[in-house]
Amino acid sequence: MATDLYEVLGVSREASADDIKRAYRRLARELHPDVNPDEDTQHRFKEISAAYDVLSDPDKRSAYDRGGSPFGGNGFEGFGFGDIVDAFFGGGSQRGPRPRHRRGQDALIRIDVDLAEAAFGGVRELQIDTAVLCEPCQGAGTAPGTGVTTCDVCKGRGEVQTVQRSFLGQVVTNRPCPQCRGYGNVIPHPCPECAGEGRVGTRRSLEIKVPQGIADGMRIHLPGEGEIGPGGGPAGDLYVEVSVLPHPVFTRRGDDLHCPITVPMTAAALGATLQIDTLDGPADIVVRPGTQSGTQVLLDQRGVGHLRGSGRGNLVVHIDVQTPTKLDARQEELLRELSALRGEEQPRAQVGTVQAKKLFDRVRDAFNGR
Fold it and tell me: pLDDT tens digits for 292-328?
C-alpha cells in the first residue's frame, strides 16, 4: 500500500472534498467486491475505502496533513467493512434473519400444437414435474409436534460478526450464520416427508386453454401455477411456450392461410368449380374461364381465428395452371385445330404480362384520341 493517502485515491493534496468524493466513487465502482471478487481487488478496495474515510472527514484530514498517523485514534481504528459500504452507497445494508417462507420460482414448459389447434384453440392436459406443499407439515418443515428453536450461534440474528486486524486497522464483517444459514432459527426435528423444506417434488396434471390465433413462440401465462416456495411460500407462475408445427399444405401469414392448387389447362380455359380441403373440411372454389397461373381465389373466414376478438382470417388459394406434357395423336390433332381456329399457328411472344399490355393499349388509345 502506498503511504500517501492522496496517492491511494489518485488526487493531489489540494483536492477539494468533491474531487476526493468523485475519485473514491470512480475507484470503488471498479474495485467493488461484487464486481471483482478476487483477493487482490478486495484488498485494494479496502485501501481506497480507508483512505476515503480519513480524507473525507475534515478533522481526520487536517490531523493527517499535520503529520498524524492514520492508524492512530483519529485514523482507521474501529473502521468496519459496513462503514465502507455506507460511505459509498449512502446507507447500510439490510440486516437480520431471512425468512424461511419465500415465493417459489417461475417455471417454463414448451408444447407443440398443430395448425388446426392454433387456428381454433383447444384444451390441453399437461403433466408437470413441480414442487407442491408438504401436507404433513403444511409448509412448516418441522416434524409433527415440534417447532423451530432459536439458533444458539447467532442468537436469532441470522448473521455472525467477524473481526480482523490488519495494517488498515480493525475490519468488522457480517456474514450469514453458518449454523442456521441466515434464518436465525434451526429445525431440530425436520419433517420426514420434506426434510425441512416445507415442500415436496411431485408430478401433477394441469388443464390449460390454448387460445385461438396463438402464434409460434407465444407464451401462455398461468399465474400461481409454478412451484410452491420454500417454507410453504406462495407459488411462482407458469409460462407455457407454444411451438406451432408446420402444415404440409397450408402456410400461415398473420391470420391468413395460403395454399397452392394445380388445375388443368382446360379447366382454366373453360372455367370450373373444384373442391378442395380446408381446415373446416371440403369447400368449393370457382375457377373462372380464362384463369391464368398466379391467380388468387379468396375464401372468406377460412383462416386462423383472431387472437383478440372474434372473426377469422381468410384462405388464399394460389392457382397454378398445368400444361400437359404428353399428348396422344387425337389430343394433338384437336389442339392443332384449336390453334388454327384462334390464328395461333405461328404465335408471337408478348413482352410483359397481359395486364401490362392492356394498360399500354389504354395509354396508346388515349394519345390517339380513341
Answer: 999 999 999 999 999 988 899 999 999 999 999 899 9
Instruction: Indicate if 137 and 199 belong to the same structural domain.
Output: yes
For the chain, the straight-line distance linking the first and the last C-alpha, in angstroms and rounded, comes to 100
Instruction: Give 313-363 as a 3 state SS string.
Output: CCEEEEEEEECCCCCCHHHHHHHHHHHHHCCCCCCCCCCCCHHHHHHHHHH
**Residue 340: all three cell numbers together:** 388454327
Asked if residue 238 belongs to a domain, the reply is yes
Does residue 111 sit in the same domain as residue 201? yes
Distance CA 241, CA 208 (A): 12
Mean pLDDT of 280-288: 96
Say which CATH number the domain at 195 has.
Answer: 2.60.260.20
Cβ atoms within 10 A of the Cβ of 130, count? 21
DSSP-based three-state secondary structure for 265? helix
Flag whether 275 is in a domain.
yes
The mean pLDDT value for 23-50 works out to: 77
The answer to whether residues 32 and 130 belong to one domain is: no
Q: Are 192 and 142 in contact (CB under 8 A)?
A: no
Q: Same structural domain for residues 118 and 217?
A: yes
Q: Quickly count: other Cβ atoms within 10 Å of residue 190's Cβ.
A: 17
Scan for cell 400461415, then name that residue.
252
